Amino acid sequence: MKYCEKHKPLHLEEVRSASSRGYGRAWQKASRQFLAAHPLCVKCQEQGRYRKATVVDHIVPHRGDEKLFWDRDNWQPLCK
């Protein structure tokens, strides 16, 4: 995959497929469970709004670190 200088990825992890970065079936199941337990977007709540969370974000980017990837204390529910 080629990128021009203006649109090059911020990090090499961005050019790998989601599955190869760990976002396979196990992640899908875990993130669904996390969203069921944490249904509201934390950023919206900080602003007094209540919006349904649709994604699980890593607070500290894991950059391939599997321990950090699976650390639920490093997850936050966000809306798109």
Main features:
80 residues, alpha+beta, 3 helices
What does this structure look like?
With 80 residues, the chain is an alpha+beta fold. The protein is 29% helix and 10% strand. It contains 3 helices and 2 strands, in the order H-H-E-H-E. The chain is globular. The model has no long low-confidence stretch (mean pLDDT 85).
What Rg do the Cα atoms give? 14 Å
Which percent bin holds the helix content? Answer: 25-40%
Residue-averaged pLDDT: 85
Give, in order, the helices and strands: HHEHE
Strand order in the sheet with the most strands: 1-2
Coarse structural class: alpha+beta
Number of strands: 2
DSSP helix count? Answer: 3
Q: Which outline best applies?
A: globular
First-to-last CA distance:
26 Å
Largest sheet report: 2 strands, antiparallel
Portion in strands: 5-15%
Uncertain runs = none
Number of domains: 1
Summarize this entry quickly.
By secondary structure, the chain is α+β, with helices and mostly antiparallel strands.
Give the helix/strand layout.
Layout (H helix, E strand, L loop, with lengths): L24 H13 L4 H5 L8 E4 L7 H5 L4 E4 L2
